[in-house]
Amino acid sequence: MTKAQGCVLCEGPGGRLVFEGAKLRVIHAQEEGFPAFYRVVWRDHAPEFSDLDAADRTLCMEAVTVLEQCLREHLAPAKINLAALGNMVAHLHWHVIARFAEDSHFPGSVWAPVQRERNAAQEAGIAARLPEMEAAMIARLVNRSF
Fold first, then answer.
1. Is 93 helix (H, G, I), strand (E, B) or coil?
2. Across the strands, what pairs with 94?
């Protein structure tokens, strides 16, 4: 596995590990106020999506799609946000975030200014549904060569 010294995603999982395959892992990010915030993290250190060959790019996006589908099916969010910024951590990873109309930043991004107070009851309700959603996600990921 290719690693870069000082890269937080090379040196650790980057959050609570949900799934780990040969090429990528899925983590649940501990982002306060956003209980359904996940990342697909490429195992080898690659700064940009175009650093992957065509087969690996397809594989990576299939994993992102599995996460999106599971979040939609189990949580019924208003929107799914996908992002691969890499400005702060130059290691290929995709943010896959279920968004809800009542969340503190909606309709802005999770990095935008706060729009309203956080709803602790709503966040707890979403968090309570994550184990079932993650079990379905893992089942789909295990059946592929991720």
1. strand
2. 40
pTM here is 0.95
Q: Residue 16 sits in a domain of what CATH number?
A: 3.30.428.10
**Alpha carbon 86 to its chain's center:** 13
Let me know if residue 78 belongs to a domain. Answer: yes
pLDDT per residue of the chain (146 residues) written in tens, 0 to 9: 789 999 999 999 999 999 999 999 999 999 999 999 999 999 999 999 999 999 999 999 999 999 999 999 999 999 999 999 878 889 999 999 999 999 999 999 999 999 999 999 999 999 999 999 999 999 999 988 78
Residue with tokens 């309570």: 128
